[in-house]
Design goal:
With 278 residues, the chain is of the alpha/beta class. It is built from twelve helices and eight strands. Strand 4 (109-113), helix 6 (117-125) and strand 5 (130-135) form a beta-alpha-beta unit. It binds 3-methyl-2-oxobutanoic acid (KIV).
Length: 278
């Protein structure tokens, strides 16, 4: 079973895997495939609920999907995102919401975007493991003016490196680095004792994470540079849906083997009864 200790033990020795999931069956399949960790990301707002960004996602949404994912796993470590405005207002609110997420989902850790050092310290003090998240932080999309690579100029790179150090000091056991140049991700990974989890941050990171709908091409929309298509489920789904429609319309589905039977004697009794009562 993967725990926070697995991240420590594997640091610098063995690369780890994380994928997002938002439902029971996907989580179960990832567990069966040996994926080390699942992130119930607030990206669910976009890929599951159809919002234009992650800002509308609520603590209740995260709990609903997080609990389903936890029901699907036996070995895989589950991290649940804390959504926008569930930790920014005060340390008290941050601890209360992290506690609710952990209690009501059964997950092993929460993830927080941005340099919220005091809030993270308070959550860690309550016994809840925290993954930090720096670089591109989608909850701040309006402040960043879009989804862009971060840490590309001197000031931004230095701030990113410094903030990572502070997240480590605040008690995070891992940090997600999103859309960060390779050499900055490498520097951070080599200079922290905790794991880095990269998404668009190169193979220098200790662990990789991808959104599962992206890596399986469930949508035919545009993809970020860092996404690799490991399978194309969009094309598989569209062709299956079209085949289903065609077969229902021309009555080649359902076939006899998909159909339940009633014996002749019972059926005749039903017909006789109907006749007698009409
Ligand atoms: O919400 C999410 O899926 C994430 C990943 C992109 C790291 O935070």
């Amino acid at each position: 079973m993967v725990t926070v200790n697995t991240f420590k033990e594997n640091k610098g020795k063995k690369k780890m895997t994380m994928l997002t999931a938002y439902d029971y069956l996907t989580a179960k399949n990832m567990d069966e495939a040996g994926i080390d960790s699942i992130l119930v990301g607030d990206s669910l707002g976009m890929v599951m609920l159809g919002y234009k960004d992650t800002l509308k996602v609520t603590v209740d949404d995260m709990i609903h999907h997080g609990a389903a994912v936890v029901r699907g796993v036996t070995n895989t470590f589950v991290v649940v995102d804390m959504p926008f405005m569930s930790y920014q207002v005060s340390k008290e609110e941050a601890v209360r919401n992290a506690g609710r997420i952990m209690k009501e989902t059964g997950c092993q850790a929460v993830k927080i975007e941005g340099p919220y050092f005091e809030e993270i310290k308070a959550i860690v003090k309550a016994g809840i493991p925290v993954v930090g998240h720096l670089g591109l932080t989608p909850q701040s999309v309006n402040q960043m003016g879009g989804y862009k690579v971060q840490g590309k100029n001197k000031e931004a790179a230095l701030k990113l490196i410094n903030d990572c150090k502070k997240l480590e000091e605040a008690g995070c056991f891992a940090i997600t680095l999103e859309c960060v140049p390779r050499r900055i991700a490498e520097y951070i990974t080599k200079n922290l004792s905790i794991s880095t989890i990269g998404i668009g941050a190169s193979n220098e990171c200790d662990c990789q994470v991808l959104v599962w709908q992206d890596m399986l091409s469930l949508s035919d929309g545009p993809k970020a540079k860092f996404v690799k298509e490991f399978a194309n489920l969009h094309d598989v789904e569209i062709s299956a849906f079209k085949k289903y429609k065609e077969e229902v319309e021309n009555m080649t589905y359902p076939e006899d083997k998909h159909t339940y039977k009633i014996d002749d004697e019972t059926y005749n009794e039903v017909l006789n009864d109907l006749k007698e009562n009409n």
